[in-house]
Amino acid sequence: MKTIIGEKLEFIEKQENCRILLAVESGSRAWGFPSENSDYDVRFIYVRPLQEYLKLQRGRDVIEISDGGLLDIAGWDLDKTLRLVYKSNPTVMEWLSSPVVYRTSDEAGKLKEAARQYFSVQKELRHYFQMAKNHYDQYCDQDSIILKKIFYVLRPILACRWIIKKKEPAPVPLKELVEACLPEALKTETERLLNMKKSAQERLVISRPEALMHYMERQLIQIP
After folding, report:
1. How confident is the model at residue 37 (pLDDT cuts 50, 70, 90)?
2. Contacts (Cβ under 8 Å, ≥6 apart) of 223
3. Do the Cβ atoms of 190 and 178 come closer than 8 Å?
4. Are 65 and 74 in contact (CB under 8 A)?
């Protein structure tokens, strides 16, 4: 798949007259809990020739390509990305910290440095808390739960714990967050669920894992 993704990125550069500065995996494959049939969510940052930025009427600052299958590719213009870095946008922060990198550059390294300088504890904390609460309210307040939705709640909760404790951007992989922030008594059960998720279809439904759910519910009350 990496070869196919590389070819797609080269095609985008030629078709869109741009240079890709960074291309990474986003979503479950970057977080470390993909299913067998999970999509590849490729996200990239690109720059166009200088004259494009001097026009009075600028074009779109987003490029999106989907093959209708497992591959979903989207990118943001450098100008848009810089504005979001300045605002400590959590999505950009995750792209810049993704452990799965398809393309990088010197400029990407400078973007990462800038992102750390503009990191906002409050903005990031608000983002991850709201993400956890929204997924819990929509999918997890019931006896049977889609397995992947548990991790869609757990990961942002642990990201909040990391940010509160360390006052720095949370790592992207769930495994790092579990090791650093999850109570020891819950790690074995979480590992069991992760192994189940990796070998399951996307929408596998399981019975409510009570101890883990109680922990997450307490955190949703305590974190704000």
Report:
1. confident
2. 125, 129, 157, 160, 161, 164
3. yes
4. yes
